[in-house]
Write a structure and sequence with these properties.
One of its GO terms (molecular function) is hydrolase activity. The protein is mostly beta strands. It has a domain of 90 residues: Ribbon (Umud Fragment, subunit A), CATH 2.10.109.10. It has 1 helix and 10 strands; from the N terminus they run βββαβββββββ. An 8-stranded antiparallel β-sheet has the order 1-4-5-10-6-7-8-9, with no helix packed on it. It has a two-stranded antiparallel ribbon with strand order 2-3. The longest helix has 5 residues. The radius of gyration is 18 Å and the shape is globular. 14% of the residues are buried.
Length: 139
């Protein structure tokens, strides 16, 4: 898993934002002009000193639309909540999974039926490294 600190990224000018939302049905000719500009860094990053980019390797989260090669925006300052997608460290290995507490037990749940949930036990060296706030996927 590759990790990139958001502070190490170059400053880029804001990108033009097309007016309104993009129709997923029939297009509207009225929406063919630019409305304003959006700074994608400012949009994605709420806590710059605690935010990192992580490149995904593997396919255990494909049913959550997280694919091999995607970039995750991970905020280490956000407190994880039940059923959020997190980057965790288990016995020194990074993994991305959905965190779930059930019957007073903690699990990391994959989003692919080919993988099994991981029950977190006291014998494991476990830490939630950060909460996934955005997924950047290249089609």
């Amino acid at each position: 898993m590759q990790i990139y600190n958001s502070l190490s990224q170059a400053i880029h000018p804001p990108i033009p934002l097309a007016n309104g939302a993009v129709a997923a049905g029939f297009p509207s000719p009225a929406g063919d002009y630019l409305d304003s500009r959006i700074d994608i860094y400012e949009y994605l990053i709420q806590h710059p000193t605690a935010t990192f980019y992580v490149r995904v390797k593997g396919n255990s989260m494909i049913n959550a639309a997280i694919h091999d090669g995607d970039l995750l925006v991970v905020d280490r300052s956000v407190e994880p909540k039940n059923n959020q997608i997190v980057v965790a460290i288990i016995d020194g290995e990074f993994t991305v999974k959905r965190i779930s507490k059930y019957n007073n037990k903690l699990y990391l749940i994959p989003e692919n039926e080919k993988f099994k949930p991981i029950e977190i036990t006291e014998t494991m060296d476990f830490d939630v490294w950060g909460v996934v706030t955005y997924v950047i996927h290249k089609p």
